[in-house]
Amino acid sequence: MTNAHQFGLADIANVFEFAASRLLAIRIALGKSHLVESGKVHAIVTRYLVWEGEVFITPLVHYCEGRGISLPFSRNLRFFVGMLGMSQLEILNYQEFYDSFMKLPASPTGAWVSGRVVREYPLDWWNGMFDTADHQKFTTTFPNFREIQEMVESHFLQLPEGQMLVTPATLVDIGSMPVAQQLATIHAGMRQEGEHIVTLLENKIVEARLVAATLLRMETALGQDVRAAIAATERLVKYLKRED
Question: Which pTM does this prediction carry?
Answer without folding.
Answer: 0.67
